[in-house]
Amino acid sequence: MQSIADNVGGAISYASLARKNRSKDIAIASLGIFVLFIAIATLLALFIDLAITGYPRLADPEFYTSFPSRKPLQAGILSAWVGTIMVMVVTACLSVPLGVAAGLYLEEYASKNWFTDLIEINVSNLAGVPSIVYGLLALGLFIYTFGMSETVLVAGMVLALLILPIIIVSTRESIRSIPSELREAAYGLGATQWQTMALYIVPAAKPGIITGAIVGLSRAIGETAPIITIGALSFIAFLPESPISSDAPFINFGWLTSPFTVMPIQMFSWLSRPQADFHISAAAAGVVLIVMTLMMNALAIYIRYRARSR
Amino acid sequence: MTAMNQPKTTNEFAQKDARQTPREALDHWYLEPDAALRARVSNLKFWYGNGTQAIDDVSFPLVEKKVTALIGPSGCGKSTLLRCFNRMHDLYHGVKYSGSIELFPENENLIDLDPNVVRMRVGMVFQKPNPFPKSIYENVVAGLRIRGISKRSQLDEIAETSLTQAAIWDEVKDRLHQPALSLSGGQQQRLCIARALAVQPEILLLDEPTSALDPIATAKVEDLINDLDGKVTVLIVTHNMQQAARISHYAAYMYLGKLVEYNETSEMFTRPMCQRTEDYITGRFG
């Protein structure tokens, strides 16, 4: 029998070949660690710098429970974090159902032709449109054309538009990742397209869909440009009406039409002031914002982990 | 021997076969005197979306409450033919049928019916076990839920009968609410059979149901298919000649999208009408 050495015209030293290949492995791994280190170190340095600068305000419990003020040491982020949460609620309520429905339609129902291809390309492109463009769109459409004012609702709407492409794309990807065996099993039992979707495909794709939604929302939470563009105020010394009240009907929607501010805007306004003490407040607000984002991402990871272990 | 001088179509090798041509064989389906027809495939042709013709003029009967096996080498169109029976192909774009699969006693052509209705009436078990990522119980009753049955007592009863019928009740009766994916591959496949049986299909299609299973799990599935003989009309695709001999009552041998021979399994395996069938069955080809 002919050996491989006869074919290639000479013996191969497997030992030296393995050594050579392994040294390539090591080189790639070291490069990876180095790049990862740069990324993480930059992020950590930023965060630690903010935390040290902002520490005096971060350590003051009143920072979280006071309104902004002209006196730096009394200024707090109460209206900002409440506003952020309210805007996020509106954004989530608008973008998740719309994005999931659009993703589901494009992936499962739409016939494949040039028109859906066009929509698909455009949805992916929309994810890359600068956020200030969305702000301009909202200003022109919601505020000037529809005559709405700069309220929680409008802010939620513009942020929802901003993250809609992210949610559509991630919904489509998680639906596409469901093996076709599951689909055929459902259809094989006589399920209609909607039953297959609602009973089997969407539940199986849920972790991916939720992760996508949270990734979208954690992008929205830090967005400043579109909110400034629609003209949000930076000095709000009151809270929007509470969504829950003690007398009937217990739930009210007055807060939707209330003026508001959000964390990034509060930071921006403090940074643009001359007093150094305001910069401390801005750094502290930055830390709070980063922690809020990290918490949302942690939630996304937890949901994915739980779905995988089940 | 190379592929070049192998006959291309059934007609060619039928001519070379001195004993009997397939066409004659088809016109004289030998069925037992008391055999009732559940369905009859007549001149069925099928094209995939890319224009490939996978089934060419196939005709054969499907006897009620008996197991019929579809055998033939890989790529001969047997799985494609099986999936015509519940219109699974219609999930994909651009497929085309011609001819008919008549259902009896209704005399309806399955190709003209709403695919959704066909799948309600014709159950299917796939090559790879594909339970839903839900509990064992929810898997068995899935077909019932789809049909709008939600009364707990009814569901419980049907779940027990179908799991018993699929010979898995004793193994799962104490863990009905555990995830189906925690079962072994063989158990998952029997669960899928129970899921298909729960809705009392007029025809049960099995697409190589044991090809992903080990010999012991295979034996269990074969036993349960044997038990279905006389109760359910079964059409099974199998690669395994011994399996076909063990479990089926009738057999259809396909080659290159055509039906070469249809007969009682015992007859086909002892006195095949075509040389080609004999070569395949005895392992000289395929």
From TrEMBL, chain A:
Compartments in which it is found: Cell inner membrane; Cell membrane
UniProt keyword annotation of Electron transport present: no
One annotated Gene Ontology cellular component of this protein: plasma membrane
A Pfam short name: BPD_transp_1
InterPro entries, sorted: MetI-like (IPR000515), MetI-like_sf (IPR035906), Phosphate_PstA (IPR005672)
Transmembrane spans: 26-55, 75-106, 126-146, 152-170, 250-272, 278-303
Domain ABC transmembrane type-1: 81-300
Highest taxon in the source lineage: Bacteria
Bilayer topology term: Multi-pass membrane protein
GO biological process: phosphate ion transmembrane transport
Keywords, comma-separated and alphabetical: Cell membrane, Membrane, Transmembrane, Transmembrane helix, Transport
Gene Ontology MF: a single term: phosphate transmembrane transporter activity
Family: Belongs to the binding-protein-dependent transport system permease family. CysTW subfamily.
Name of the protein in question: Phosphate transport system permease protein PstA
UniProtKB/TrEMBL annotation, chain B:
Classification via PROSITE patterns: ABC_TRANSPORTER_1, ABC_TRANSPORTER_2
UniProt record, GO biological process: phosphate ion transmembrane transport
Parts forming coiled coils: none
Domain ABC transporter: 39-281
Keyword Ligase in annotation: no
Annotated Gene Ontology cellular component terms: membrane
Membrane spanning residue stretches: none
MF terms (GO), sorted A to Z: ATP binding; ATP hydrolysis activity; phosphate transmembrane transporter activity
Keywords: ATP-binding, Nucleotide-binding, Transport
Gene3D superfamilies referenced in this protein's UniProt entry, alphabetically: P-loop containing nucleotide triphosphate hydrolases
NCBIfam families from the UniProt entry: 3a0107s01c2
PANTHER family xrefs: ABC TRANSPORTER I FAMILY MEMBER 17 (PTHR43423:SF1)
Protein name: ABC transporter domain-containing protein
Organism, scientific name: marine sediment metagenome
